[in-house]
Amino acid sequence: MDAIDWSRASGISPDDLPVPITQYLVAHQARDVDAAVARCTPDASVTDEGHTYRGPEQIRDWLSRSSGEYTYTTELVAAARVDDRHFDAVHHLEGDFPGGVADLHFRFTLRDGLIARLVIEP
Fold first, then answer.
1. Of 5, 46, 91, 113, which has the most beta carbons under 10 Å away?
2. How far apart are CA 115 and CA 94, in angstroms?
3. For 76-113, what is each residue's pLDDT tens digit?
């Protein structure tokens, strides 16, 4: 997979994120695992905390586990676009996880109207 130069991203309104991304984010926040997985390609991958999860079963397991691990609030605070396939949604989280506060980039790669890759990182 090609490396994406996220420094080339241009800021956009969070309202301008593509529909599959906003649908995924709403489902993720609501902890609706099935709806979130439905926004992904069959060969999608998610990388979070240095671990990569591939395909619907692993992504479903990751979402189920991560959604119950801590209690937190999340707010979409910024968005950016590299090109028609690559988008960054920045979330501010506060909760009972180590450190208690974090800003995380949800970096999406789209393919055929679905999420093919998601990398979550500071």
1. 46
2. 26
3. 999 999 999 999 999 999 999 889 999 999 999 999 99
State the Cα–Cα distance between residues 23 and 119, nearest whole angstrom.
Answer: 17
Q: Which regions of the chain does DSSP assign to beta strands (E)?
A: 10-12, 40-48, 51-54, 72-81, 86-95, 101-111, 114-121
Q: What is the pTM assigned to this prediction?
A: 0.93
Q: Which residues contact residue 8 at a Cβ distance below 8 angstroms, ignoring those fewer than 6 apart?
A: 82
C-beta separation of 80 from 54 below 8 A: no
Sheet of 101-111: strands edge to edge? 10-12, 72-81, 86-95, 101-111, 114-121, 40-48, 51-54
Write out the H or E segment, with its range, that includes residue 20. helix 19-29
- Cα of 112 vs its chain's centroid, Å: 17
